[in-house]
């Protein structure tokens, strides 16, 4: 099975989650410009029996046999397929609150992050919990007195067994009254804490959201700093090396021997990069799937205010009074001025013209 199948699974997972977290910055919706990537989607690539109870996928990993493991948010969150895509098993009942990242070490052990429960687990190949890092259900700091994550996102394993875990999934101040502290935590192969680097910010070495992480052939760590729209590259002691900026929302990546494939979240793309991070190609929703309405150009700018037909034919009823909904909408835009500020400044015009230029009002 080609590894690119897994990248598409990551892309679908990341893209699905972005709809649940509408960005306050419209720039995060703008796709990366690039030549088209020479891949096409394969319909139903992984047939899954209903009994597998597989939910929305959050991440994927391959083991040494070429078997694909999909981490999902179903009642059986771990699903294994053989190297030909044949379903083998589903397991992991009750282990996760909100699964997020997965890796498999050289011994076949499964490492998985739970962004909702603030823990990272090591499972045996049979699915038994061998080690839990963090305190389940408790967000906080990892220091000499407390051993807590704050939304662990992803984990990667160095050749010597050291673990690197990214944390801080929620942009801004964080959730539940716990101040967000995005960054990278380093542990040895036995789970002993070594160091942390990062913190909130936009300068080199700081993060808004430290999301995905991968190791290249030189042993350097590549970390997707999502809302800062970049990948930051470090050595394994946390020394900042350089960064690469992208349009959209850098989410996750897979580093191969020839290319890097990166998921561009809100923009709904998968990018092919060279090993220095330069964009070579991209694939997303193709233009051929869009059906234009030629008899009323610009129709997407006009909306009917009457809901009588909708109510009559579907039985729909409003859950919020019109005046209350209008006020809530106005309040949202007043609280998220980045949406209108970028449009007023003219920064959004390139994207606007490429999508709507030439249409009649």
Provide an overview of this structure.
There is one protein chain. With 361 residues, the protein is of the alpha+beta class. It folds into two domains: 4-289, TolB, C-terminal domain (Neuraminidase), CATH 2.120.10.30; 299-356, no CATH class. Helices cover 14% and strands 29% of the residues.
Query: How many strands, what sense, and barrel or not for the largest sheet?
Result: 4 strands, antiparallel
CATH architecture of the largest domain, please?
A: 6 Propeller
CATH topology of the largest domain: Neuraminidase
CATH superfamily of the largest domain: TolB, C-terminal domain
What is the global morphology? Answer: globular
Poorly predicted runs are 1-20, 296-302
CATH class of the largest domain: Mainly Beta
Strand content: 25-35%
Structural class: alpha+beta
Query: Helix segment count?
Result: 5
Question: First CA to last CA: what distance?
Answer: 49 Å
Q: Overall mean pLDDT score?
A: 84
Strands in their spatial order, largest beta sheet: 1-2-3-4
For the secondary structure, the number of strands is 20
Number of domains: 2
What is the CA-atom radius of gyration, in angstroms? 22 Å
What is the string of SSEs from the N terminus onward? HEEEEEEEEEEEEEEEEEEEEHHHH
Secondary structure: helix percent: 10-25%
Supply database-style keywords.
alpha+beta, 5 helices, four-stranded antiparallel β-sheet, 20 strands, Neuraminidase, 361 residues, 29% strand, 2 domains
């Amino acid at each position: 099975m080609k590894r690119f199948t897994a990248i598409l699974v990551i892309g679908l997972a990341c893209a699905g989650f972005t709809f649940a977290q509408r960005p306050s910055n419209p720039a995060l919706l703008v796709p990366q410009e690039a030549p088209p990537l020479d891949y096409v989607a394969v319909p139903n690539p992984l047939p899954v029996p209903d009994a597998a109870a597989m939910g929305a996928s959050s991440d994927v990993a391959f083991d040494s046999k070429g078997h694909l493991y999909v981490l999902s948010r179903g009642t059986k969150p771990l699903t294994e397929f053989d190297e030909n895509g044949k379903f083998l098993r589903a397991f992991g009942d009750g282990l996760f609150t909100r699964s997020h990242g997965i890796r498999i070490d050289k011994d076949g052990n499964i490492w998985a992050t739970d962004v909702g429960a603030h823990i990272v687990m090591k499972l045996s190949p049979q699915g038994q919990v061998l080690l839990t890092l963090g305190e389940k259900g408790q967000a906080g700091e990892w220091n000499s007195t407390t051993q807590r994550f704050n939304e662990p996102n992803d984990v990667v394993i160095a050749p010597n067994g050291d673990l690197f875990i990214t944390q801080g999934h929620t942009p801004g101040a964080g959730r539940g009254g716990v101040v967000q502290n995005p960054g990278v935590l380093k542990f040895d192969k036995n789970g002993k804490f070594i160091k942390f680097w990062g913190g909130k910010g936009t300068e080199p070495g700081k993060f808004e959201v430290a999301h995905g992480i991968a190791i290249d052939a030189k042993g350097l760590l590549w970390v997707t700093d999502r809302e800062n729209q970049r990948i930051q590259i470090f050595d394994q002691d946390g020394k900042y090396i350089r960064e690469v900026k992208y349009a959209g929302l850098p989410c996750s990546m897979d580093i191969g021997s020839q290319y890097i494939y990166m998921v561009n979240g809100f923009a709904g793309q998968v990018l092919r990069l060279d090993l220095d991070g330069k964009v070579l190609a991209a694939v997303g929703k193709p233009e051929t799937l869009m059906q234009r309405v030629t008899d009323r150009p610009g129709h997407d700018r006009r909306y009917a205010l009457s809901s009588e037909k909708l109510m009559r034919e579907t039985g729909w009823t409003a859950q919020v009074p019109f005046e209350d909904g209008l006020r809530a909408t106005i309040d949202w835009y007043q609280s998220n001025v980045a949406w209108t500020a970028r449009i007023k400044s003219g920064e959004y015009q390139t994207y606007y013209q490429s999508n709507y230029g030439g249409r009649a009002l």
